[in-house]
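The protein record minuted underneath.
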Amino acid sequence: MNICIVGMGLIGGSLSKAMRGNGFAGKIIGVDKNPQHCTIAMYCGLASEFLPLEEAIEVSDLILLCSPVDVNVKLLPEILDRIKGTSKVVADMGSTKADLAAVVKNHEGRGRYVAAHPMAGTEFSGPAAAIENLFYDKVAIICDKEKSDEDAYLLVMAMLQSLSMRIQYMNSADHDVHVAYVSHISHITSFALALCVLDKEKNEKNILSLAAGGFESTVRLAKSNCDTWTPIFLGNSASILEVIDTYIEKMNSFKKSIQENDHESLRALMDRANSIRKILK
């Protein structure tokens, strides 16, 4: 089939590599407003051609939205208008869903849309960062399955399964709460830690020369693209603010134990945190 990928960055490029490799896609049509992305993607063989969105929709069976989430919110109703009455399917790969669900809630073409979120990524961006096996054995979340037409849902599920992904189901509201806890807060804390160290580096020029593996792994996400993450943080602000409050509460618990030289309390906090080993094996 012909697949249109809107936004040929890390996720879009990695989808293209994987689907061209496994034969799921017959032809990949790219859509991207960044001329440099188009050039790099063509050079890397990620797309057969790049077309304006309207033309790409006309010649595609499946349209995948891999742009920043605020762009997806603007594009989705327009695309549903264009594919209304056809067998074409549109799916987004974004990290938040509630805004998308709201904007197409009453759209007569809502059934042709599938909300999907492959839980995979790196701190790098752009088509040159694409990885063919990025999605292998990762979780893919499909939201509001019951609101998608069966053939649309089955097509997107088949695509995700062709990537060897494990599929889970949620509604959009629950999805946004859960990803705030397991994904979005990780990026915020990484950005914040990087700022702390950079501020200290202004006065103590050698501090970064002491950075070892623990610091690098913790702050790695601070290299993530701000154009991608700014709309995610703002679009999921209610859930993220809830998580930040919880995070600050836990930080204050550590602060209190250290201030009071409370050995037992400090050990208890870390011992409780160690139980994450049972989940993340």
About this structure: The beta strands are 2-6, 27-31, 49-50, 62-65, 89-92, 113-118, 139-143, 166-170. The two ends are 38 Å apart (CA to CA). The chain has two domains: 2-171, 175-278. The chain is about 50% helix and 15% strand.
